[in-house]
Design goal:
- The protein contains 13 helices and no strands.
- The protein is mainly alpha-helical.
- The protein has one domain (3-215).
- α1 packs antiparallel against α4 (86-99) and α2 (48-55) runs antiparallel to α8 (158-186).
- It starts with a helix and ends in a 21-residue tail after the last helix.
Length: 299
């Protein structure tokens, strides 16, 4: 594969994953602000500044008309001039996909192109500025369709591995940055009166990583619940943290070949299948029995 094609596949997938992450963060932070209004007076720097820090974006110097949260949401969603906005990421992903249309499938290109033009529609943008929930949902659904078509319609060869590489590298980077910012922000909230505030923020972190529902489910109890098995089970159930675990590195680097055969425990011989159970019974002729003679057909 040419390095130009591999680079375009990598950044196409990474920009789509980044656009989905920014849209999901804006959606979660919008609902977090509504929840915080019922808890008490929370400062603006408590969550929106943390959002900019996790996305590595500076705060807008001139908020403009409306509240700072509305101005920041519009700035991170609709501005084509800002490199970290949703529209800028989708535009760059579309440019990379257009440069390699002969390599990717037509279904993948059609879905990405349709998502870009849907979000660029003037009427849709006008309605999304009043109620941005439809905009966030369109980005998340479009990204899910794009990734699903890449897995379902593409051959799992070198090109597909570069698509997976871009997706998991971007997911691991954004997840670690979000955890780092939120940990340093909430570690000083030791007062019992701050427990509702801390709980809402950590719930927002789980929702931002698409792990809130999985976290609420009761964990399965294996026969040997060691620490390593519990961590591996959590990584298998939470896709946002899968790239951060040792098993996820294999998926990033080698695709389906990352998970190798399991080694037997120390001091224990490897298990072997019983030959009597695996052999298929075949009827063998008796050598003492003479073969029957064929009767000649009458004339």
């Amino acid at each position: 594969m040419l390095s130009r094609v591999a680079d375009a596949l990598f950044w196409m997938s990474r920009y789509v994953e980044r656009a989905e992450h920014v849209a999901r963060l804006l959606d979660v932070w919008f609902h977090l602000e509504l929840d915080l209004s019922g808890v008490g007076a929370a400062p603006f720097e408590m969550h929106w500044t943390a959002l900019c820090a996790s996305l590595q974006q500076p705060m807008p110097s001139r908020p403009g008309v409306g509240s700072p949260s509305v101005a920041l949401s519009h700035w991170l969603a609709f501005e084509h001039d800002k490199p970290g906005s949703v529209m800028a990421c989708l535009s760059r992903a579309r440019l990379n996909a257009r440069s390699i249309r002969g390599t990717i499938n037509s279904e993948v290109w059609r879905e990405l192109n349709k998502l870009y033009w849907k979000l660029s529609d003037a009427e849709f943008v006008r309605r999304s500025r009043e109620s941005p929930y439809d905009f966030y949902q369109a980005v998340e659904c479009g990204s899910a369709l794009f990734q699903g078509l890449c897995d379902a319609t593409s051959t799992h060869e070198e090109g597909w591995r570069f698509i997976q590489l871009g997706k998991f590298v971007e997911r691991a980077d954004k997840t670690l940055r979000l955890l780092d910012v939120q940990y340093h922000l909430l570690r000083d909230l030791t007062n019992p009166a701050d427990v509702p505030l801390s709980t809402l923020h950590w719930a927002a972190v789980l929702k931002s990583c698409r792990a809130y529902d999985s976290y609420q489910r009761p964990p399965r109890r294996p026969r040997r619940a060691g620490a390593r098995r519990r961590i591996s089970a959590a990584g298998a159930e939470l896709p946002a943290f899968g790239a951060l675990l040792p098993g996820g590195a294999g998926r990033v680097a080698g695709g389906d070949r990352g998970a190798g055969p399991r080694r037997p425990a120390a001091g224990r011989p490897p298990r072997r299948a019983d030959a009597r159970r695996t052999e298929i019974p075949v009827a063998r002729p008796d050598p003492r029995r003479r073969p029957a003679r064929l009767l000649a057909a009458p004339d």
